[in-house]
C-alpha cells in the first residue's frame, strides 16, 4: 500500500505541476513569451528529460537485475533445503526429528513470506509476521527453529565412520542453508533511498511545469499531459514494486520452496544394497 500511495502522490504532483505551468503561462506578460523564451524552455525540457530518462533506465536495469538474482537465490535456497534433507535421510532414524523440524521450518517460511498465498498443509508450524517490514523473510521464531536444527546436528552421536562422515556432511549442508537464507533476507530490503527518490520526483515535477509553460490550453493537450503523467507514474510503480521483491504485485515465486517442501514429504526408500565385490 505504501508503494501505491507514493505512486498516486507522484501522479498528482505531475498533473498539478503541469497545471501550475499553464497557470503561470496565462499570467506571464507578453514580453516573456517570445520565441527565444519558448526555445529556452524547450532546451531545458530536453536536458531534464534526458537526465530523467537515464536515471529511470538505470533504476529499471538495477531493480530488474536484483529481482532476477532474487529468483535465482530462492531456487538455490530451495536446493539447499532438499540437499540438507537428503543428507538427513541418509543418516537414518536418528536424524528424523531434525527432518521434521526442517519440514516445519520450510512450511513456516512459505506461510510468512507469501502470506496471501495458500498456506502449506501438514503438521503445525509457527505463522508469525516478519518483525520489521512486509516482505522480509526472517522472524525470531524461524531463527529459533534454525538454531534448534543446528544444535540437533551437533548432538548426533555417530556410531561408525559412515555416520560420522554423514554427520559432518549434514553440518556442512546446514551451514550452506543458513548462508543461502541470509542472502535472501538481505536482498529483500529496498535499495532505492528516499532522498534519491525525492530528487527524481523533483526533476519530473520541473519537467511537467515546463510542459505546462509550453502547452496550449485545449482538451487534447490536457489529455496528452495526463497520459504522460500516468505512463511515468506506472513506470515508477513497477520500479518501486520490483525493488521490494517479497511484497507487492511483482513478487518472487514461491514455487521453488513449495517444490522443496513436497520433496521433503516424499517417503524415503533406501537404495538397494550393492552386491559384494568379487574376491
Supply the key terms:
279 residues, 8 helices, mainly alpha
Could you walk me through the main structural features you see in this protein, from its secondary elements to its overall organization?
With 279 residues, the protein is mostly helical. It has a domain at 74-190 and 252-267. It contains eight helices and no strands. The protein has helices spanning 2-27, 35-91, 96-113, 140-154, 161-187, 194-214, 219-243, 255-265. The longest helix has 57 residues, at 35-91. The chain starts with a helix and ends in a 14-residue tail after the last helix. The model is unreliable at 131-135 (pLDDT under 50).
What can be said about this structure in brief?
Helices cover 72% and strands 0% of the residues. It is an all-alpha fold.
Q: In total, how many beta strands?
A: 0
Average residue pLDDT: 83
- Major sheet description: none
H/E series: HHHHHHHH
The backbone outline, from C-alpha atoms, is rod-shaped
N-end to C-end Cα span = 72 Å
Low-confidence stretches: 131-135
The Rg value, from CA coordinates, equals 28 Å
The proportion of residues in beta strands is under 5%
- Structural class of the secondary elements? mainly alpha
Helix content: over 70%
SS summary, helix count: 8
Amino acid at each position: 500500500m505504501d508503494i501505491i500511495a507514493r505512486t498516486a502522490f507522484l501522479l498528482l504532483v505531475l498533473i498539478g505541476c503541469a497545471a501550475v505551468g499553464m497557470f503561470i503561462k496565462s499570467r506571464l506578460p507578453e514580453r516573456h513569451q517570445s520565441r527565444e523564451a519558448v526555445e529556452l524552455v524547450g532546451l531545458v525540457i530536453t536536458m531534464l528529460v534526458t537526465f530523467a530518462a537515464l536515471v529511470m533506465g538505470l533504476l529499471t536495469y538495477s531493480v530488474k537485475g536484483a529481482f532476477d538474482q532474487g529468483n535465482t537465490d530462492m531456487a538455490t535456497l530451495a536446493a539447499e533445503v532438499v540437499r540438507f534433507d537428503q543428507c538427513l535421510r541418509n543418516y537414518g532414524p536418528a536424524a528424523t526429528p531434525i527432518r521434521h523440524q526442517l519440514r516445519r521450518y520450510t512450511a513456516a517460511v512459505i506461510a510468512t513470506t507469501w502470506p496471501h498465498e495458500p498456506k502449506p498443509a501438514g503438521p503445525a508450524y509457527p505463522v508469525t509476521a516478519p518483525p520489521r517490514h512486509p516482505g522480509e523473510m526472517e522472524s525470531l521464531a524461524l531463527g529459533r527453529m534454525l538454531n534448534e536444527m543446528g544444535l540437533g546436528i551437533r548432538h548426533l552421536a555417530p556410531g561408525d565412520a559412515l555416520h560420522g562422515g554423514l554427520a559432518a556432511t549434514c553440518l556442512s549442508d546446514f551451514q550452506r542453508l543458513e548462508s543461502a537464507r541470509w542472502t535472501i533476507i538481505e536482498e529483500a530490503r529496498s535499495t532505492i533511498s528516499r532522498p534519491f527518490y525525492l530528487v527524481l520526483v523533483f526533476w519530473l515535477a520541473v519537467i511537467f511545469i515546463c510542459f505546462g509553460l509550453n502547452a496550449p490550453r485545449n482538451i487534447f493537450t490536457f489529455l496528452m499531459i495526463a497520459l504522460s503523467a500516468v505512463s511515468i507514474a506506472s513506470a515508477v510503480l513497477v520500479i518501486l514494486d520490483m525493488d521490494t521483491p517479497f511484497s507487492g504485485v511483482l513478487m518472487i515465486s514461491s514455487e521453488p520452496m513449495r517444490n522443496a517442501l513436497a520433496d521433503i514429504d516424499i517417503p524415503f526408500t533406501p537404495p538397494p544394497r550393492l552386491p559384494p565385490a568379487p574376491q
